[in-house]
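Re: your question about Homer protein homolog 2 isoform X3

S., sorry for the slow reply, the queue was backed up all week. Below is exactly what I fed in.
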Amino acid sequence: MGEQPIFTTRAHVFQIDPSTKKNWVPASKQAVTVSYFYDVTRNSYRIISVDGAKVIINSTITPNMTFTKTSQKFGQWADSRANTVFGLGFSSEQQLTKFAEKFQEVKEAARLARDKSQEKTETSSNHSQESGCESPSSTQASSVNGTDDEKASHVGPADTHLKSENDKLKIALTQSAANVKKWEVELQTLRESNARLTAALQESAASVEQWKRQLSLCREENDRLRNKIDELEEQCSEINREKERNTQLKQRIEQLESKVREKETELNDLRKQSEIIPQLMSECEYVSEKLEAAERDNQNLEGKVRSLKTDIEESKYRQRHLKVELKSFLEVLDAKIDGLHDFRRGLSKLGADS
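Result:
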């Protein structure tokens, strides 16, 4: 009843695999509630998470613990008492940051509580030593002072105070002895945890060496397989090139066969044409005669064309001369028309004045 939650969030809970000390084992199938609890009576802090009726986290926070962020949404801490490592996966980086900040606050509060308890223990031991030294002198002073009535009247309250102080010291010593036993148990637990962690570290180192050897073998095998793949790819490329060359040769052969057939067709045509060569020769002679006659006619026509060109040049010259004369005549006519317009305007002016 003295333990109250001071911070609550939701996360996926994981624990380190006890056999390998490396792989994470999910402690919950889904996100569960993870809370910080403060025990008023014991002045201690715990992280508690419950999945249904199963307690999956019950970790008392000590000043030696450290919460480590391993990614943007995942953090972990080691609990030597539970001999395990807890991991929490959050839905956002902000939740992880808040949880880590709260862990640091609680860790600092646990450290202050431990320091205060140590100071109380030292103070209680100092008080017990001082009271043990002062009690004889107080009894001597009481025996010296006056009668028994005076002793009863003066010494009684001091004895009561000493008894209460002694009772308090006894309680403090009992608590300190219990704390010493608890610390011894915790020290023994830490030693055992250290021994287990050392053994696990040695096993991990051996496993690492074995994994390094296996990795080296795997790399060699991988290199060998890659070389084999490169050789096979080269062979496949060579085969593909041979196929392409064969395809090209087949196409070339088909083209040559087609050309051979065309040449044979042309040869047959030439043979047929050779049969009509005499007729063509006679026709060629006839055409030559006609060509000579046409050339003579062409020469006569060329002479006529030259004479026509001369006539055309003369007619062009006469046209240019006529254009010049017509232009000068038009200029004179325009001057006459302008004079008539001026004369008409004068007559119109005279008519208007009269």
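DSSP finds three helices and eight strands in the chain. The radius of gyration is 63 Å.

Happy to talk it through on Thursday.
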